[in-house]
Amino acid sequence: MTKPLNNRAWFFVLPVFAIVAFSAILPIMTVVNYSVQDTFGNNQFFWNGIGWFQELLDPSSQLGEQFLSSLMRTLLFSAIILLIEVPLGIAVALSMPREGWTVALCLVLMALPLLIPWNVVGTIWQVFARGDIGLLGWVVNRLGIDYNYTGDPIDAWVTIIVMDVWHWTSLVALLCYAGLKSIPDAYYQAARIDGASRWAVFRTIQLPKMRRVLLIAVLLRFMDSFMIYTEPFVLTGGGPGNATTFLSIDLVKLALGQFDLGKAAAMSLVYNLIILAICWVFYTVMTNVDAERERIEA
Amino acid sequence: MTGTIAVGRSDVKPVAAPLAANRALSGPRVNGRVVVMTLYLLFLMLPIYWLVNMSLKTNMEITSGLTLWPRDITFDNYIKIFTDESWYSGYINSLTYVLINTVLSIAFALPAAYAFSRYRFLGDKHLFFWLLTNRMAPPAVFALPFFNLYSAIGLFDTPWAVALAHCLFNVPLAVWILEGFMSGVPREIDETAAIDGYSFPRFFIKIFMPLIASGVGVAAFFCFMFSWVELLLARTLTSVTAKPIAATMTRTVSAAGMDWGLLAAAGVLTIVPGALVIWFVRNYIAKGFALGRV
C-alpha cells in the first residue's frame, strides 16, 4: 500500500522542523562562527581562518596530539564495547524464557539499568567498585588481585567497560529478542523436519532474521559509546591522568572548563562530522537492507 | 521511507508462542539457557542491590567494614532528602523540566508523525536522516552553544532552557514512535470519518487520538526517560534555581566530603520513576530505544 504524495503534509511537519532547527542549526552556526575566530576575552574576537583546524589536525601540535589521543581512546572504547555487548546480547536474547510469567520478569529486570540516570550509573559503579566499601572491589582485592580504579589506568578501563556492559547489554538483548519473536513457527518446524542442529538453526534462521535489529543495535551502541560522557566523568573524571579522557570529556573540559572557544568549536565540528559520516553509512546500509527485504517479501 | 516503515511493521506481531516450537530443538540445553539468564540477571541486580543496601545503612556502618545487608536499618538518609529543601528541590526541578519537555515533544510530534505515516512529501527521506543525526549528535558538542543561546535569550537557569534543549533528541524520538503506532491504524478510518462529515481537527481528537492512546503513552514514557537520564545539558544550562537532582548529587558530594549513605539514597530515588512505570511499557522497550524501528 503506497502512501499518496501530498506536499501539504509539510504544514504538519513544520513545527517539528522549527523546534529541531532552533536547537540544532542555530547552535551549530554559533560553533562554526567560533571555530574561525580567536578571542582574548572581553568579547573581542579576531579572525583566525582555518588556524584552529590546522592545529587540531596536526598531531605534532599540543592540541592536535590531545585530540588524536582522545579520538583513539574513544574508538578503542567503542570497539571493545561492540565486541563484548553484541555477542553477549545475542546470547542473552537466545536465553530468554519462551513463555509464561518469567518472560515479563526478565524483560523488566533487564530493562532496569537502561532507565537509570547516567550519572547515577556512574555513582553506582563508583561505590560498587571501591576497594573499601564496594562489594566488587572488595571481593576482587580479597582474591589477591590488586585492584584500584582511581589509581591504575588498566583498572579504570576495565571498570568503565564492565559498567557500560552492565548498562547497555540489555538494549542489544531486547532488540535481538524483538527480532527473534518475529520468526514464524513454521521455520522451526521445517528445521526440525530437516534435522537441523542447534547451530544450523542459529546460523540460517535466527541470525538472518536478526540482521536488521542487530544493525540498529550496532548503530545505537556505537553512537552512544562514541559520545559517552556522564558515566566515566562521574566514575573516573577522565583519570587517572588522561587514561579515560574520551572525546566528550576532553571537549567539555576545553569548552566549559577553560572557555577555549575557538579550539573547542573546531573540535566540535570535526567530532560532529565524524558522527555524521558514520551515521550516513549506517543509514544507507539500513535502507538497503530494508529495500532488499521488501523485494523478497513482495 | 515508505518501504522501510511498512516492512518494519510487519515484524511487530504480538506473538509469544513461535519460539515454543524451538524447545524440542534445544531440549537438553534448557538448563544452559537458565544458567546464562540467571547469571546475567544477577550481574544486573547486584550493583543496584548494593546501592539500596548502602542507602539503608548509617555512614558509620558503611565505612567501618563490609556488611552484606544493613545490620541496623535506618531511613535517616531518605528522611534527610525529603526534609532538606536543597535536596528535594533538585527532584522538583528535574521533574519540572522533564514534564515540560514531554508535553512539548508530544505536542510537536503528533502532527508530524501523522504526516509521516499518511503521506509522502518532498524531502521526507532527507528530513528523516536529518532527525536521525540529531538523535546521534553528541550533547558535548551542544553544551557550549546552548549555554550561549539560552543565556542570550534570557532562559538560562530556568526549566525551559533544559526542556527546549532536550527537544533536540526527544522530538525526533516521539515522531518515530508515534509514527509507528499511527501506521497501525488503517487509513480507511480517516476516509470514513471524512465521509461522515468530521472536520480534520475533530476527527483527530475524537476518533484518531483514542486509537493511538497507547502509542502516546509509550512515546511520553520515552521522552520522560531520556530527559530524566540526561545530565550534561541539564547541568550546563542551570546554576542555582533550576538545578537538577543529578547536579545536586555531584556537587553536594564534593563539597561535604563523602556522605555515602545520602548519596546512595538520592541515587535510589532517581531509579524509582523508571522502576514504577517499567511494567507497563515492558513490551515496547526495544521499540522506544530503536526509534520505533523494530
UniProtKB/TrEMBL annotation, chain A:
SUPFAM superfamilies: MetI-like. It is found in: Cell membrane. It comes from Microvirga terrestris. InterPro entries: MetI-like, MetI-like_sf, Sugar_ABC_transporter. It comes from the Bacteria. Belongs to the binding-protein-dependent transport system permease family. It is a multi-pass membrane protein. It holds the Pfam family BPD_transp_1. The chain crosses the membrane at residues 12-36, 75-94, 101-128, 156-180, 213-230, 264-285. Keywords: Membrane, Transmembrane, Transmembrane helix, Transport. Its main location: membrane. Residues 71-282 form the ABC transmembrane type-1 domain. This is Sugar ABC transporter permease.
